Amino acid sequence: MTINFYRILPINIILILNCFSCKINSQEKNIISTGTIKSLVNGDLMCYVTLIDKNGKENILGASFEICEQENLYLNNEVKLTYELANINDCQSNEPCGKTRQESIITAIEIIGKN
Fold it and tell me: Nearest-CA neighbor of 63 among 38, 79, 40, 80?
């Protein structure tokens, strides 16, 4: 019996793409879009934002380093967050090792309410 891989291959590609799409969509559902910023801290790999969401839950989110440079502007204000995929160093230390991972991080913040 001969298996025709040309018939199987398109189905496999569709299944892989569908699974990838489902994973991205499920991740997007968990992304917090608004809240009040309580702190901004520069870390080794990224800026870390502590945000209180609409349910009063504290969340620690990753952001670009440029976000931490604007601490006085964003602190204690209600904000809307914009995310982008970024390559983050994925090493044991903060020294470059050539390994990265993709992660959605905050790249822009819009103030929607002053406190």
Answer: 40
